[in-house]
Amino acid sequence: MTGPAIFLLLAGLGAIAWVSARARALRLQGVARASGRRDAVHSLPGYHGWYVALWTLIPAALFLAVWANVSPGLVTQDVLSSSAAQALPADGFSRSSILGEARAIATGAQAGAFNPLSQGLVQPYKDAIGKYGLAGAVLALVLAFAGGAYAFTRVRPDFRARTRVERLVMASLLIASLLAIITTVGIVASLLWESFRFFSMVNPIDFLFGTKWSPQSAAMGYGNEDAFGAVPLFWGTIFIGAIIAMIVAIPLGLMSAIYLTQYANPAVRRWMKPTLEMLAGVPTVVYGYFAALTIAPALRDFAVSIGIQSASSESALAAGLVMGVMIIPFVSSMADDSIAAVPQSMRDGSLAMGATTSETIRKVLIPAALPGVVGGVLLAVSRAIGETMIVVMAAGLSANLTLNPFASVTTVTTQIVQLLTGDQEFDSAKTLAAFALGLVLFIVTLLLNIVALRVVKKYREAYD
Amino acid sequence: MTTKRLPTDWKSDVMRNRIARRYAAERRFRLIGLFAVLLSAAFLAFLLFTMLGNGLRGFTRTEIAVKIDFAASPLLLDPNAITDEALSNANLPMVTSDAVTKALGADADDWVSPTAWIVLRDRIKADPKILSRTETVTLPASTEIDRAAKGDGSPEAEATVDRLKGAGLLTTGFNFNFLTASDGTDPTQVGIWGAFKGSLLTMLVTLALSFPIGVATALYLEEYARKNWLTDIIEVSINNLAAVPSIIFGLLGLSIFLNFLHLPRSAALVGGMTLALMTMPVIVIAGRNAIKSVPPSIRDAALGIGASPVQVVFHHVLPLALPGILTGTIIGMARALGETAPLLMIGMRAFIATPPGGITDPATVLPVQIFLWSDEVSKGFVEKTSAAIIVLLIFLLAMNGLAIYLRNKFEKRW
Amino acid sequence: GCGDQSSGGGAGGTRDQIRAVGSSTVYPFATAVAELFVQGNAGMKSPIIESTGTGGGMKLFCAGVGAQYPDIANASRRIKKSEFDDCQKNGVKDIIEVQIGVDGLAFAESNRGPGLKLTPKIVYEALAANPYGKGPNKTQNWNDVDPSLPAIPISVFGPPSTSGTRDSLAELILEKGCQSDPAMKALKDENEDEYKATCTRVREDGKYVDSGENDNLIVQKLDKNPNAIGVFGYSFLEENNDKLNDIPIDGVEATYETVSTGKYPGARPLYIYVKKAHMQAIPGLQGFLNAYAANWGPNGALTKRGMVAAPEDVRKGSAEAVKSLAVLDGSKLK
Amino acid sequence: MMHEPQTLVPATETKMTARDVNVFYGDKQAIKGVSIDVDMDNVTAFIGPSGCGKSTFLRTLNRMNDTVASARVEGTITLDGENIYASSMDVVQLRARVGMVFQKPNPFPKSIYENIAYGPRIHGLASGKADLDIIVEKSLRRAGLWDEVKDRLHDSGTALSGGQQQRLCIGRAIAVEPEVILMDEPCSALDPIATAKIEELIHELRGRYAIVIVTHNMQQAARVSQRTAFFHLGELVEYGVTSDIFTNPRQERTKDYITGRYG
Amino acid sequence: MMHEPQTLVPATETKMTARDVNVFYGDKQAIKGVSIDVDMDNVTAFIGPSGCGKSTFLRTLNRMNDTVASARVEGTITLDGENIYASSMDVVQLRARVGMVFQKPNPFPKSIYENIAYGPRIHGLASGKADLDIIVEKSLRRAGLWDEVKDRLHDSGTALSGGQQQRLCIGRAIAVEPEVILMDEPCSALDPIATAKIEELIHELRGRYAIVIVTHNMQQAARVSQRTAFFHLGELVEYGVTSDIFTNPRQERTKDYITGRYG
Ligand SMILES: Nc1ncnc2c1ncn2[C@@H]1O[C@H](COP(=O)(O)OP(=O)(O)OP(=O)(O)O)[C@@H](O)[C@H]1O
Ligand SMILES: Nc1ncnc2c1ncn2[C@@H]1O[C@H](COP(=O)(O)OP(=O)(O)OP(=O)(O)O)[C@@H](O)[C@H]1O
Ligand SMILES: [Mg+2]
Ligand SMILES: [Mg+2]
Ligand SMILES: O=P([O-])([O-])[O-]
Questions:
Q1: Mind telling me how many Å the CA of D63 is from chain B's nearest CA?
Q2: How many angstroms separate the Cα of A84 from the Cα of each of A75, A116, A119, C7?
Q3: Where in the numbering of this chain does the ABC transporter domain appear (chains D, E) (predicted)?
Q4: Which CATH architecture has domain A215-461?
Q5: Which atom of ligand 5 is nearest to the CA of C25?
Q6: What is the pLDDT of residue D171?
Q7: Most buried among A113, A255, B125, B152, by the most CB within 10 A?
Q8: Residue E191 near residue E160, CB atoms below 8 Å
Q9: What does pLDDT average to over chain E?
């Protein structure tokens, strides 16, 4: 029995369970309702349907998931004990590739045999797969019936089917949020572990407060002491991502959102908002080329013309400006949504006091929409910090500690990518430095987020 | 309280000046807003304009008509037994180059694309009878001629183009091949389909994972989780995920999906899962903000007539929050669509010449394809790169189109 | 469920597509061969070539034997002893080494540029972080290095420290320039580490600009900035000779001729490394290698793509390696 | 202070009881030791100055205070003898049985029809579209809104006038046919005619449902209720037969309030 | 039908006039040819059944209808003889001069203090912090809220009870010292004492400000107003001296409504 067939069969069973349970509940409840008391009936018949359908499907599906992982091993064991398998070579990879090929032919994933030996194994494979497939299907069906029957007997007018089904919904919501949390934990754990190894090679103080960054010299055996000073990277990150890019993105994004929600006519807003959102989707290579070949040379010429001779053709300013443009939608769209969500009565209240539209926006709407606005700005900063391509192409890779926006700087993320791609040895300080950088970045943004959360909590103005 | 205030004297100079100032501020504010919108739009227009300028040429290709006498050519082919195998052994490249030189002169071999013989192969396969005829076949021009025909070539090549044009042998037409072929090494023959399909599959996986999980997480945290330090920690750390450099997600994908779960390398499945990790926080954050801004009185109203918390959420809160959630989804997916770094880690920065058949087949995606082409030696790839960018943007538009439609549909003011 | 396509559960899995990883320099040639291989072998699936940089490729290549590990590593330098040992440790015992051709490490400037002429010594003195161990590099303009050069600021766009190309720059040019000082030669025998650091470390004050792994970007930046010079593979120079001029090293220009004969100081070999254990398991692997051999000659398809063919005797040796699948002896590696 | 409920005019079935209920918003106590019985056959009116806790207490009766994070309820409240704060209580069912009309009209941003149909739908009270239409019409009629909106049932409920919105919310609450109806100043936004209709509705519902109504309008309390509870500063000052309270209050504070001699 | 305003009890200065005003929401006409004069020394009450257009008309008087996208106003409305819909009219100033209290309380999600201080701040009516404090206290006192909130001026205005919120909004409106005050059912959420305070405030303000009040409470209309306008289905049915309207309505419809014999 094939996968899709079982799937269809189960889906059919589930549907039948749903319909029959619903019908039963409907009938029983009709009787109970007629007899008076209101709490004699608890859940809508549909919930009974779902309850029984879920009992039919979930145990069987769980079983099949387990079976799908167990049965290939059983199949292989069966095949290996067949006579044709005795001719297999002892060497691991050839052996497994022959087996794999035979399996592929047996399941129809591959047409002809590349290795003659595998042809003989096709039949044993077919047999074994058929055997275990059937066994699995039968067991799954039995489980489905058992589950369904158990649940079906519980259908009573006052049975709290809705509560059960909703508990499952809640459980799945919980599991979903756990997944998000597990991702975080996974990232933190891996960062922590590798950083720990890094810090056993490099003094954390040197790393955190050193002002010289040149990991390749460390890789060349020049010593770890003054090769891993990450301050220039932190500064570069802040300079490009949190200062220059934000100087572009926050005013443009926020003012665009304000204009579109409060001043522009709704049709304009309907078109402009998605149009601006396209800025976030232009691939960063494109921005990179744009920054490196159009903006950066122009900025350098400008800097030279105003007498900054040291201006380099790679500049923090070029990368930051273009990055700022890229993240405008993060600010504008999120701010737009939260401003639009502030109830009309708030606006009316302010306008009726004789406030101008801009006063209403600045003093009433923005404070009420603060969480969304701050959320958008945080996302934008995050995105700017995480960006690499533009920096590589337009700001260069040299770790300078400078206030000069026309100088070349680099960022933490860019260095992480540089360290992790290309030559990588997962036991050298050079590669591990990427994790330490990642960890510091994580901690810094964490602090940033905590502060933002506090600020929002303090200044948020909850309406309604 | 003795001070009796009289109605404010709005006609006094002080008040008049004040009002004038406020109006000036109002106008300024409004102008700044307009300016911001226009400036942002101008950036976009500029980008689009430049890309269209460079990229539209990528959608056309130059072809040269060549008369080939199949019967007389030294083809090792039996018209009754045309198989793929026979064709690949039929010495077609040689035959093509002979035919071209015979028809157009000694240097003409450089005028047609080195892979022009594929056209012959396909023609023969489609109609074996051609082997007994003389037929005019239009072959793709080489990069040099193609560029010259588009006004961007060396003087010699341009002279050749003029000559061929004069003879009526040179045509420029829409490059369907670009939309149907996959990666290759000859810019006149490459296409975007493989990468497009890869992106499509990857985005489907990303959306299928990140949207439900993101929305569910946002709902759980905002509506059901008890507000305490634990939820604060969760909130902050999810916000923080958005700031984790994307390549770190690539590392996570590498170690979990490839090294631990043994999922196939370079596959859309793994790419999609990795990008989903990255997109999810954006959806969660936007979703929570959107959920927060649903007025509590709506929840009260529903609870008050006996809706269960789950019903309140799915019947009222979610529909009202959907526009905001979709905004998050749009920008999250847009970012995922344009992302390359994490995909490097899981092997999607690769030459993959066959379009993926499913989510477990090796695949590449549009931004990676763009990145790879932008680093190609041959200049013929420059316009292909821009053309691929246009395709990516169209993809982006189409993807956002649906979400935007839904968003506009659900948006309500109250 | 899972486990149906690639991993055959207990069977360990199989793969019907060749996988190669590694150098971005070799990447265009590998893809060209892959294409030819498919065209010449009807029904074969196209090999998958990943561009990870030489070091990254080696790392993946040496991770083990089996369907989930690549079959081939492309390299723009020879495998290192440390990498070879890593391979051995992970059970990748038998490795076949094939030199597929030669590449030149070209130095170029815009054709509106000053027309520099360089030597390894000048390059070393201009780019070293600490020339001859005598303290940080203070040179600002080319004429600070050598009075015969024009008084324009030093500005070099080159590959990042993670690429094989950068390794080649260090080995072929910088070390050579460095050794012009006999003291350095002596240092090499005394203290290998310090020698390496002194001779191959590149300055980080912005005179040398890491430009990611995107050589076209360097080309375009040179076009915008006529006083800068760029370092990249020979094929880019060849393709962009309408915009760029070659900068001769030691008076030798990078041309097909000089690179292939090895007269050009920046000439370097390109390799592929193949797992012998995969030869039997992966369909078409032998055919793929044959496709290399058929196309790496002086008039072959690879030279059309900008590769420089290896000298006759090297090609013969490589062809032999492809045929006999002779295994690399790790003891001679550095 | 008198907390003990008295036996009232018609001997009736007690529907809800509250015993020693305290409600806190954070540290602030909004309800102080209130005990009260709500009858099946009598309409109970809560009166008292603004901010005295009427809404707060009303919300404890169907556990709407659960939704205010800072709110905490102490004491016992029963419905048909069952403690509604017991963990076995199904809050959802409780709220379906104890319906509520809020002080500020809060229609869903859906159509008028959907606003009314929502409750019957989730509780499965209609067997089909036609049935639902009937329920919607009946509820709107009872709420005195039918004539005004019958031609625009599919317009948004939020585009109605203030009074119309409030009547919509009343219609929405009675569409579920609850056993107890809690009305928090249902007529404050209504004109006399609409008010009269609602009062008529209350009269009509009386006996079938237990009804609690918060009102600032003494005349209204006198007109519609049989029992009146007077709250002051979170305390239940006096609770008794409406006519007694209005004609012969036992407490000084009640008297002062009733006669408007307060504050 | 009588549209012409009559000369009234005390000869007074006319503050606002409306002539042939029509208001449409999209296609639906909500106000039909209303003409009315608002006096400086008289309080004008708007009465009429729910949904008849009282709020709509009130909102045309300070152009709050501008904020409703679908609303369209025809006709002339003047303030001190100036057409408020003229393009030369300064809407901001207009709204500062014609203050408004809404039907649904809508305090800003700010502290109580900030809610009151908002208007004086934007109009520059306070010369400093101390001055502002005085204005806030005075406004809250007048709105009858001071004693309840004086200890928590920095709590959010949204955490007040419904009646408190409404009084906060009244306080907010008078803090700007407007010339005309439009009140849309200001007392509907208030208890008798608070209502009495507001009525007292109205009495106090009368003469200095022109006051328009929408109310459903006939007694209130009779108590506080000198002139009453009765609206029905968007039309101004009758407008005249309050005592006349209540004792001797000329129109049948008015009489029916006043005596509750409607619908
Ligand atoms: N969410 C809340 N948080 C804190 N305090 C609150 C909250 N809601 C109400 N209060 C306070 O609790 C007290 C009682 O409020 P409640 O809303 O019950 O009054 P009420 O009697 O209904 O008044 P009104 O007639 O004005 O509606 C008031 O002092 C009010 O300010
Ligand atoms: N924003 C709107 N869009 C469309 N119609 C509206 C809107 N606001 C009000 N209406 C309609 O206009 C008519 C008049 O409404 P208005 O709010 O002026 O009534 P009202 O006299 O204030 O009633 P109430 O006493 O119930 O507040 C009503 O039929 C109402 O449904
Ligand atoms: Mg209340
Ligand atoms: Mg109204
Ligand atoms: O990619 P590389 O050839 O420079 O390693």
A1: 9
A2: 14, 12, 10, 21
A3: 16-258
A4: Orthogonal Bundle (1.10)
A5: 3
A6: 92
A7: A255
A8: no
A9: 85
Q: What is the pLDDT of residue E9?
A: 47
Same domain, B218 and B350: yes
pLDDT of residue B96: 84
Please identify every stretch of chain C with a pLDDT value under 50, giving residue numbers as ranges.
1-12
Q: In what order do the strands lie in the sheet with B60-69?
A: B134-140, B60-69, B170-174
**Backbone region of residue D211 per phi and psi (left: phi > 0; alpha: psi in -120 to 50; beta: other values):** beta
Measured CA to CA in angstroms, residue A169 lies from A154, A314, B299, B306 at distances of 20, 53, 19, 18
Q: What is the Cα–Cα distance from A74 to E65, expressed in whole angstroms?
A: 76
Q: How far apart are CA B413 and CA B320, in angstroms?
A: 9
Q: Is residue B237 part of a domain?
A: yes
Burial of D27 (0-12, 13-18, 19+ CB in 10 A): exposed
The whole-angstrom separation of Cα D256 and Cα D259 is: 5
Residues B150-207 have pLDDT tens digits of: 887 788 888 888 888 888 888 888 888 888 888 888 888 889 999 999 999 999 999 9
- Relative to the CA of C57, which ligand 5 atom is closest? 5
A266 at interface of E, judged by CB pairs closer than 8 A = yes
ipTM: 0.84
Domains belonging to chain E, first-starting first, are: 14-258 (3.40.50.300)
* Domain carrying residue B318: 193-410
Q: What is the pLDDT of residue E6?
A: 35
Q: Kindly list the residues from chain A whose CB atom is less than 8 angstroms away from the CB atom of residue B400.
A: 274, 277-278, 281
Instruction: Name the token pair of E149.
Output: 């909130």
The residue assigned the tokens 């000859």 is B186
Name the amino acid, one letter, at D162. G
Residue B3 included in any domain:
no
Query: How far apart, in whole angstroms, are the C-alpha atoms of residue C311 and residue C321?
Result: 15
Same domain, B300 and B395: yes
Q: How far apart are CA C237 and CA C215, in angstroms?
A: 10
Mean pLDDT of chain D, nearest integer? 86
Cβ D123–A44 below 8 Å, yes or no? yes
Q: C residues 56-115 near B, CB within 8 Å? A: 68
Buried b (16+ CB within 10 A) or exposed e, B18-38: bbeebeeebeebbebbebbbe
Which residue of A284, A334, A382 is in closest CB contact with B286?
Answer: A334
Q: What percent of chain B has pLDDT over 70?
A: 97
Q: Nearest-CA neighbor of C14 among A121, A12, E47, E32? A: A121
Q: What rounded mean pLDDT belongs to chain A? A: 82
Rounded percentage of chain B residues whose pLDDT exceeds 90 = 15
Both tokens of residue A37? 């008391």
Of B148, B175, B202, the position where a domain reaches its end is B175
Considering the domain architecture, whether residues B228 and B163 belong to the same structural domain is answered as: no
Residues B163 and B209 in one domain: no
The residue whose C-alpha atom lies closest to atom 22 belonging to ligand 2 is E55
D18 pLDDT tier (thresholds 50, 70, 90): very high
Closest residue of chain A to B357, computed from CA coordinates: A109
In the predicted model, is pLDDT for residue B5 greater than 70? Answer: no
Indicate yes or no: CB of B6 within 8 angstroms of CB of E138: no
Considering only residues 50 to 69 of chain B, which have any Cβ-Cβ distance to chain A shorter than 8 Å? 50-51
Whether residue B248 and residue A172 make contact (CB cut-off 8 A), yes or no, is: no
| pLDDT tens sequence across A186-225 | 888 888 888 888 888 888 888 888 888 877 665 555 555 6
Ordered alpha helix ranges (H), B67-142: 84-88, 92-104, 117-126
Residue in B297, B309, B320 nearest the CB of D104? B297
Same domain, B201 and B330: yes
B10 or A348: which carries more pLDDT confidence? A348
Separation of alpha carbons A395 and A392, rounded Å: 6
Q: Compute the distance between CA of residue B336 and CA of residue B277 in angstroms, rounded to an integer.
A: 10
For the CA of E160, the closest atom of ligand 1 is 31
